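Lab notebook, bench 4. Still working through the backlog of constructs that have no structural model yet. Next entry is a single chain of 78 residues. Request: give me the structure tokens for it.
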Amino acid sequence: MKKIALAAIALFAVSGVAACESKQDKAAEVQADSLEAKAAATPNEAKETELNKQADKIEQKAGNADGGATTANTPSAQ
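Model written out:
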């Protein structure tokens, strides 16, 4: 239940800043959201962690690690 609530909050937050995103950011966010939803649905903790890490990498690579909420959303060197 907690995972579903967190996923819903994340989706709501993303939808609030959608108008400020580029097409590339939006595509990365959709891909990351899909992974986060899968992570929330799995009962396997290790799989959940791995899926969330993958989602974070996608967001970071797109330069949208903070959802575009601030100006500090440039990609980090990884």
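Notes after review: Residues 2-61 form one domain. The chain has one domain: 2-61. Flag for follow-up if needed.
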